[in-house]
């Protein structure tokens, strides 16, 4: 069994360079299809969180829908009204999306 592997490696010759090129190609494909879109999505979410205004309908962590009542810039918190008279104070990073931008899975 070992002699077959050794014979295959000897017949292949300078395969080290081909393996290096293949690894670089795999990394490039992974970056374009996985890492880059994720970074783009994170940047969009961060820009949305920084532009929050009172009256915006939002989705916070856990899928809770509500309306922004107050944004505290110093503490990085947002007061979100989830029902009449029920106001939650959440960290600004806990606000994930604008309700108008969320598309239902119907």
UniProtKB/TrEMBL annotation:
Predominant place of localization: membrane
Localization in the cell: Cell membrane
Pfam families noted in UniProt: YajC
Organism whose genome encodes this protein: Prevotella sp. GTC17253
Any single biological process term in GO: protein transport
Keyword annotations: Cell membrane, Membrane, Protein transport, Translocation, Transmembrane, Transmembrane helix, Transport
Transmembrane region(s): 16-35
Protein name per UniProt: Sec translocon accessory complex subunit YajC
NCBIfam families tied to this protein: yajC (TIGR00739)
Protein topology in the membrane: Single-pass membrane protein
Family: Belongs to the YajC family.
Keyword field contains Cell membrane: yes
GO annotation, cellular component aspect: plasma membrane
SMART domains: YajC (SM01323)
């Amino acid at each position: 069994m070992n002699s077959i592997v050794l014979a295959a490696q000897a017949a292949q010759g300078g395969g080290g360079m081909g393996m290096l090129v293949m690894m670089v190609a795999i990394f490039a494909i992974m970056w374009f299809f996985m890492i880059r879109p994720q970074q783009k999505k994170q940047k969009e979410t961060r820009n949305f969180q920084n532009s929050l205004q009172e009256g915006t309908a939002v989705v916070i962590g856990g899928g809770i829908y509500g309306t922004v009542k107050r944004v505290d810039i110093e503490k990085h918190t947002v007061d979100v009204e989830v029902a009449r008279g029920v106001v939650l104070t959440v960290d600004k990073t806990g606000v994930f999306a604008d309700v108008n931008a969320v598309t239902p899975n119907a």
